[in-house]
Amino acid sequence: MKTKIFIIAAGLLAVSAIAGNVALAIQIPGISQVGPTSVTGTVDVIKNIVKWVYILFFIIAVLFIILAAFNYLTAQGDEEKVKTAKNQIIYAVVAIVVALLAVSFDTIISNFLQSGQ
Q1: Domain residue spans in the chain?
Q2: Distance CA 43, CA 49 (A)
Q3: Is the CB of residue 44 less than 8 Å from the CB of residue 36?
Q4: How far does CA 38 lie from the centroid of its chain?
Q5: How buried is residue 85: exposed, middle or buried, by Cβ count under 10 Å (0-12/13-18/19+)?
Q6: How far apart are CA 48 and CA 44, in angstroms?
């Protein structure tokens, strides 16, 4: 039974991929192409998506830090709750540091590649 479902799902995926490619290849007179038309345009779209995800990530990280601080303040001396709140703050700060490093690696690598020319 699982094999039949897998085969049907794979077939539907293949048909949808082929139909999507065919739809992209059709040129309709009077209608301009929507979206990027070059590799540079595609890279710009991806950069914009990453920028928005990055902003959203920091908003969520700040909310988690506020939530952890609230948990810390309302622990009322319960050692287990205090420990959990401290761990939440540590995890949020580590996540922010990792995100900053990820963005920094992009800059470092692009500077390295540009200086080699």
Answers
A1: 36-115
A2: 10
A3: yes
A4: 22
A5: buried
A6: 6
- Please give the radius of gyration of the chain, using alpha carbons only, rounded to the nearest integer: 24
**What confidence tens digit (pLDDT) does each residue in 13-68 have?**
666 666 555 555 556 566 666 666 677 777 777 778 878 888 888 888 889 999 99
Tokens standing for 97?
């540091």
Go through the chain and tell me how many residues it has. Answer: 117
- Tokens found for residue 92: 């949020």
Tokens of 39: 């590799």
pTM exceeds 0.90 for this model: no
Residue 101 in tokens: 């490093």
Record the tokens describing residue 41, joined without a space.
Answer: 């345009």
Amino acid making up residue 112: F
CA pair distance 57, 98, nearest whole angstrom? 11
Question: DSSP states of 14-43 as a string?
Answer: HHHHHHHHHHHHPPPTT-PPPS--SHHHHH
